[in-house]
Design goal:
The protein is α+β, with helices and mostly antiparallel strands and about 325 residues long. The chain has six helices and twelve strands. A twelve-stranded mixed sheet has the order 7-8-9-10-11-1-2-3-4-5-6-12, covered by helices on one side. Bound molecules: zinc ion (ZN).
Length: about 325
């Protein structure tokens, strides 16, 4: 092998030599040649610089790639966390909305059932407090007896007799010792009217159940007079309305309406089925001796025809 041939072989092996991928013999052969050949040493120097540069560039690219990869991983984690938060929020919203709607629907169904009954007694105990005026606090209790179309509502101040689909009614006032026999041109009462005291949820909450407004309400569990209740709260920092619903019967047992430092209003309800007797709703008691001194008056309470039509339309609902 002459010098020129050797130089050529050594040049061919440059990259493998620099990367140290030659076998021991070849490695030594190149090493020995380089020690004696200036020309090849120069050539190797340039190749070495190039290879090193390439390695450097490789390293830089790898480093940058790693950086980008790391960022993508962080983004992935953030995305997953966001998705989990959205999922949990969605579940909370769904649960709240479902709990509220379900309760409102059950209470409303119960009210419709109560309206269809023929014999029941209702008591409503009202407590009112005006925080601004100490003297403006009062309590009031009213009892409704309903049997087969006849209704008597009674308090310690008055008695009212009404009948389903009737144009007439009787009012008795203890204070003024007077009895009014009223004759109207509109129907004073439809079946189930007395159950109206339980209708707050049905009339006000049912239309918004299953909508986004459900989220304005919270439902908690609590106990009132030994009754396990759901408490539906609608309120803010200044006021609230709590409606207490018997967990077993879905009948409203209490309503509290408070405006902090302004007023407090509470109504406590009881509902009993099949306890009313004929005597409870009999207006002929007014013929008893104790009413002899009462002033008795026949009163016509006629209203304009267009108002009658409005009342009829409401009654027809
Ligand atoms: Zn050489």
């Amino acid at each position: 092998m002459d010098k020129k041939e050797e130089c050529e072989i050594v040049k061919d092996l440059a990259v493998q030599y620099i990367e140290k991928s030659l076998n021991g013999g070849s490695q030594n052969f190149v090493k020995n040649h380089l020690e004696t050949c200036e020309n090849c040493r120069k050539y190797y120097k340039t190749i070495e610089d190039t290879v090193c540069n390439e390695n450097e560039q490789d390293k830089m690219i790898k480093k940058q790639f790693k950086k980008v990869h790391k960022r993508i991983n962080i983004l992935k984690i953030i995305l997953v966390v966001i998705l989990i938060i959205i999922l949990i929020a969605g579940l909370v919203v769904w649960y709240k909305e479902a709990t509220f709607s379900n309760l409102v629907n059950k209470v409303s169904e119960k009210v419709e059932y109560m309206e269809s009954l023929d014999n029941y007694k209702i008591t409503v105990k009202t407590i009112n407090k005006d925080f601004k005026k100490e003297s403006n606090s009062w309590e009031f209790e009213e009892t409704y007896y309903y049997k087969n179309g006849k209704l008597k509502s009674e308090s310690n101040q008055s008695i009212f007799f009404n009948e389903d689909d009737s144009y007439d009614s009787i009012s008795v006032f203890y204070d003024s010792q007077s009895i009014y026999y009223e004759h109207s041109n509109y129907v004073r009462q439809k079946k189930g009217s007395a159950v109206g005291v339980f209708s707050y949820i049905k009339e006000n909450y049912k239309p918004i159940a299953s909508t986004i407004y459900s989220l304005a309400f919270s439902v908690r569990e609590d106990r009132f007079n030994g009754i396990e209740c759901y408490v539906i709260r609608f309120g803010d920092r200044n006021s609230y309305r709590d409606i207490w619903v018997d967990k077993n019967t879905y009948i409203t047992v209490r309503e509290v309406n408070e405006s902090y430092s302004h007023f407090y209003n509470e109504r406590v309800f009881t509902f009993e089925e099949n306890v009313v007797t004929d005597a409870d709703v009999d207006s002929s008691i007014l013929n008893l001796e104790e009413y002899n001194d009462y002033t008795k008056m026949e009163v016509n309470t006629k209203i304009p025809q267009e108002q009658v039509e409005i009342i009829d339309a409401i009654n027809a609902q």
